[in-house]
Amino acid sequence: MIRSVWAIWKHKASSNDDSHHEWCSIKYCGYLKSLEKGEEYDHNKHRLPLGIMKAIRPVFDELAHPDTLKKVINGGSQNSNESSHAVLWSLAPKNRYATGVVIDLCAAIAVLSYNDTTTNNDTDSSDESDDSNNIDSNKSIQENVNKGRNDDGVA
């Protein structure tokens, strides 16, 4: 994975005079694809100036650090929001139109699903003495909401 991180940096730093695509994958690298086809390739279309490359190098140093990469091994994520976003977009795909109400509903379901998953993983299942926050799937949404309200009717 370290090579993959640095392949991106080297790819963007490459110029027509000084190309560095030895770690690139032919899946995404236009330069390698053009070599395979025997065509000319112009790096100026995607090349970033040297000053920018120097400025973003610390970000790549951090991304390629073994401690950072440990977090994403086996499909993990550095960003906890990524998981909740994945649930949201599985309910309401980005490539389909949905009204605001549908998006709000899907977002609520995604948050509930995400929170339920993280809560169940973080707690001991034997500690369910207070079931006021548990949702009964046999009841309607309104019955479950009312179950969570206190005596004043406030949730």
Task: Outline the structure in words.
This protein has helices at 2-13, 30-37, 50-63, 66-70, 80-91, 100-122, 141-148. The protein is mainly alpha-helical and 155 residues long. The protein folds into two domains: 2-75, no CATH class; 80-148, no CATH class. It is elongated.
Shape: elongated
Q: Span from first to last CA? A: 47 Å
- Strand residues, percent: under 5%
In angstroms, what is the radius of gyration?
25 Å
Which sequence of SSEs, written as H and E, runs from N to C?
Answer: HHHHHHH
Low-confidence segments, given as residue ranges, are 123-130, 149-155
How many separate helices?
Answer: 7
**Number of strand segments:** 0
Query: On the 0-100 scale, what is the average pLDDT?
Result: 77
Helix content: 40-55%
Number of domains: 2
**SS-based class:** mainly alpha
Major beta-sheet overview: none
Quick description:
The protein has 155 residues and is mainly alpha-helical. It is 53% helix and 0% strand. The chain contains 7 helices and no strands.
